[in-house]
Design a protein that fits this description.
The protein is an all-beta fold. It contains no helices and eight strands. Strands 1, 2, 3, 4, 5, 6, 7 and 8 form an eight-stranded antiparallel β-sheet that branches. Strand 5 and strand 6 form a beta hairpin. The radius of gyration is 13 Å and the shape is globular.
Length: about 100
């Protein structure tokens, strides 16, 4: 079992790969209040589970506030990002694996 390092993803955001396989990757993102996951897109399908905190997400131009226990799927190539309203953690799964995170 591989232990992956905690790295700075964006200002106020820490990222840690929790598990990976060529077909699937699980990643933790820990956010400080007001930190942003900047708008971006990628070819991977992404599912997001809100472990703690509150976030305003923009997915394909639609904004939604999410909190603990919420989950959703972001389609491949959809432009998305978030702003952290209350400090917290997101657990994201990507298929296929995000090789750029390794």
């Amino acid at each position: 079992m591989t232990q992956f390092p905690i790295v700075d993803a964006d200002p106020g955001v820490k990222r840690q790969v929790l598990a990976d396989h060529p077909d699937l990757m699980v990643v933790s993102f820990r956010f400080q209040a007001e930190a942003e996951g900047k708008l971006h897109n990628h070819p991977h399908v992404q599912s997001t589970f809100v472990k703690s905190g509150r976030f305003t997400f923009s997915v394909a131009g639609v904004e939604t506030e999410v909190g603990p226990g919420d989950s959703f799927v972001i389609p491949s190539e959809a432009v998305h990002g978030c702003v952290c309203v209350e400090p917290g953690e997101l657990i994201d799964c990507f298929t296929p694996r995000r090789d750029d995170f390794l």
